[in-house]
């Protein structure tokens, strides 16, 4: 059982139509909120039999956890531009796109907003963010290897400053981003981290 | 009419029980969401006549806008510790308290989360944040006067990096803050802004 679930989370051992199931799960979440999300609804929208879904994910919570981590719409690949500055700018642009471009933004913004209303959803978002920051580690490993930063730099602080500022500006202040927002934010945070390190 | 409403927004010319009305408004918002918030409900909870409330705020939206800006629970005073570093750390501590200590956190976290579901609420939060950043300007004015930063520093970027990282850590990652989180975040952002400036 746990082997199956781990496999599904890595997208390697899920049912054949895993992406369709994940899409339907996130679409329904964005439309109806966590309370309105049901395995029945996911089955109907994805055209996959309900018992197949339950075979892989025993509950709505387990399904949502897998969907958040496995969904292609919420993908954050680790960029490799040759410099930490370039990589972080690329990462920030991806986050901006995720928060501002449909259909991903409908999902991302409603999921992130809804965490404050559902402790269960919040736990899945927590896992999702832990997964995503784990995938960004190569960016920092390469920067250390290139001598751009020291090994003891606080990686999570850097990511949270950048991602958080983007969330503030786009979702809460609802201001258009200046063209050089990503460059200036990365520059500020990186210079500061180097000076502090 | 507009004189009255401006007066109410500044808490100088509202009805006698303005704070009780604002309290009831934000409590109901935290409990029932924007859809569940009604002027009738506010009247009942605050013990103020409905017609009195309507006299000052012609709609639920106008009332909520005034409550967000005027509420003592969401107050962010501009600190004056003698240094920009000290002021920003104090500000960050206030934001952390706001996001983690009840009852303010119930209101703040649910309001900030709900903006993604209600464009009307989002517009009020936007005004609220604009009001709050306007009130922090003395912090930066004094820092410029003391020669700690140059006048052209991007104040909103600094505030958004700091407030955003706090939001990421507390609301989304749901991690306990390290004791020196505020000091390290301020140090990083401030050093970076100086290097860039």
UniProtKB/TrEMBL annotation, chains A, B:
Which Pfam family, any one, appears in the UniProt record?
Answer: TetR_N
**What keywords were assigned to this record?**
DNA-binding, Transcription, Transcription regulation
Task: Respond yes or no to whether keyword Transcription is given for this record.
Answer: yes
Give me the positions annotated for DNA binding: 38-57
- Record InterPro entries: Homeodomain-like_sf (IPR009057), HTH-type_TetR-like_transc_reg (IPR050109), HTH_TetR (IPR001647), Tet_transcr_reg_TetR-rel_C_sf (IPR036271), TetR_C (IPR011075)
Task: Cite the HTH tetR-type domain residue spans from the record.
Answer: 15-75
Q: What is this protein called?
A: TetR/AcrR family transcriptional regulator
């Amino acid at each position: 059982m746990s082997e199956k679930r781990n496999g599904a989370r890595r997208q390697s051992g899920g049912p054949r139509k895993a992406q369709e199931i994940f899409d339907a799960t996130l679409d329904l979440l964005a439309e109806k909120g966590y309370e309105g999300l049901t395995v029945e609804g996911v089955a109907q929208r994805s055209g996959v039999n309900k018992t197949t879904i339950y075979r892989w994910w025993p509950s709505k919570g387990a399904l949502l956890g897998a969907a958040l981590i496995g969904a292609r719409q919420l993908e954050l690949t680790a960029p490799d531009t040759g410099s930490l500055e370039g990589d972080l700018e690329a990462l920030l642009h991806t986050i901006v796109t995720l928060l501002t471009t449909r259909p991903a933004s409908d999902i991302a913004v409603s999921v992130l907003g809804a965490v404050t209303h559902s402790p269960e959803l919040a736990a899945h978002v927590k896992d999702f963010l832990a997964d995503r920051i784990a995938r960004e580690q190569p960016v920092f490993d390469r920067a250390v290897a290139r001598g751009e930063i020291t090994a003891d730099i606080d990686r999570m602080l850097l990511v949270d400053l950048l991602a958080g500022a983007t969330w503030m500006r786009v979702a809460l202040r609802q201001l258009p981003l200046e063209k050089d927002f990503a460059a200036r934010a990365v520059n500020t945070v990186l210079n500061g981290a180097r000076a502090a390190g």
